[in-house]
Amino acid sequence: VQLVESGGGLVQPGGSLRLSCAASGFTFSRYTMSWYRQAPGKARELVARISSTGGSTDYGDSVKGRFAISRDNAKKTVFLQMNSLKPEDTAVYYCKVNQGLSVYWGQGTQVTVSS
Prior knowledge:
This protein is mainly beta. Helices cover 0% and strands 53% of the residues.
């Protein structure tokens, strides 16, 4: 299983970024995919989750209405569209998949929101 995030960077408050997570090594279309983030000195937290078909999503309270998760099963990729970014969104963003008792994480991509 391999998860590779991309799309992070430095953005001003109020700006947007789109993160991608390219998956390989498993049948992507069978699994719920999640985005988490971890800010310095804080616990890792759920940002968004999407069901295997994309028909169901849920979000952490702090990002509801600003972020949108989506997936392309043909391309084995999950996306996180982040709008109206705030300094408190600064964190390393990780892609995650659970397969039974096994949990797989990507290496993370840094998002910094600063003027």
